[in-house]
Amino acid sequence: MAALNFPAAVCSLPAFALALSAQQAPVLTSAQRAALDVGRTVVTTEQRPTSAWPAVTVYAFVDATPEQAAAIFTDVEAHTTYIASVAKSRISRVIDSATMEVDYTLRVPVVSDEEYTVRDHISRAGDSYRVDWTLVRASSTKATVGHALFVPYTNARTGRAGTLLEYFNFVTPGSRLAGIPFVRNRASAAVRETTESIVRRVKAMRGTTTMARRLTELRRIVGLPE
Length: 226
Known about the structure:
With 226 residues, the protein is an alpha+beta fold. Helices cover 30% and strands 35% of the residues.
């Protein structure tokens, strides 16, 4: 997460599982897949009339299983340790074993730091995982919606099985400065930077006690044997 790019935490409900199963495999062009296979991120944007900032989707290859990648990403209180723009990430409310609200403080260039709370949900369909987030309250932001989708993916160049990460975020900022080109462009770039930070973090955590602990927690949340 960065420049009003909101990360997330966790929930497991049948409705979300159905939503995930309906879109397990993002449709990518051959050129996009080729870029992923050499370690590049793929970024797409869509300008929408309700916001000065575009909706941003970033795709990246993660050299780990979807379960491993989701396990690390849902460790929300660790976001401050590897996402540069996050000054605070703290679970403030546990709604049930798989639903929580998380308070964040985000470092934002030019404008004041943003404080906000998101409600996060996680779902699983087969070997795929999806984390959805929506805004609960914020110091200035009007709305945000996003998700991180982790699906099985085989790197065609290396033949290595891993994960396709689809990271989507759409923010409606409240600041009058949000439409300044520098701020708008920085916000979009932050989504890519967050995605790349997640990829690096997952790779660094493979084979560690942190990964083992997070896998146990994720399996508990989604109802799998630990």
